[in-house]
Amino acid sequence: MASPSGEIDYRSFLDKLWEAMPSDEFVAMVSSPAVLGNPLLRTQHFIGGTRWEKVSADEIVGWHQLRVPHQKYRDAALTEVAVKGHAHSTNQHWYRRIDGVWKFAGLSPDIRWSEYDFDKVFEEGREAFGDEVKGETAAVAVAVAAPAAAEANVVPATILETAAVEPTIV
């Protein structure tokens, strides 16, 4: 499960910041054909170099190093690549314990450099989402439920992972 809303800072690739995007809006946005819901897009997120900081009894911040290759194909046959672009980033993720359950509560990718034509991979997303900054007052996003970190020492690394990882809390 996700917290009801959270900060989504996509300025590094969509030129957009949501200070408090409701979780259902986040799921709709990232699932949109203009972002990750494009049936012609293939991507994989490699995660490493993870570090965790317990900010309070109910808040954890995670920093993750990512390499994210993307390929967008010309048509549904998926035989000819139209656009290829890979990103290298560090991502800051926020997690909150709500009613005893750890939930994903936001993210801020910082793309350090890219390869190929990464700027073209999400052009439609920048056009659809990237020209204004919203500032609602709720908290984030996608469903990630995990045991409490302090009790179980397990917090999910990303919103897309099904297996939890052992964090090093500093």
From TrEMBL:
Q: Please indicate if the UniProt record lists Lyase as a keyword.
A: yes
Task: Cite the entry's keywords alphabetically.
Answer: Lyase
Q: Which residues form the Scytalone dehydratase-like domain?
A: 3-129
Q: Which GO terms describe its biological process?
A: melanin metabolic process
Asked if the keyword RNA-binding belongs to this entry, the reply reads no
Annotated catalytic residues = H45, H70
Q: Which domain of life is it from?
A: Eukaryota
**Which Gene Ontology molecular function entries are recorded, alphabetically?**
scytalone dehydratase activity
Checking InterPro entries in the record gives: NTF2-like_dom_sf (IPR032710), Scytalone_dehydratase (IPR004235), Scytalone_dh (IPR049884)
Q: Where does substrate bind?
A: Y10, F13, N91
In which family does this protein belong, per the annotation? Belongs to the scytalone dehydratase family.
Q: Supply the name of the protein.
A: Scytalone dehydratase-like domain-containing protein
Q: Name the source organism.
A: Diplocarpon rosae
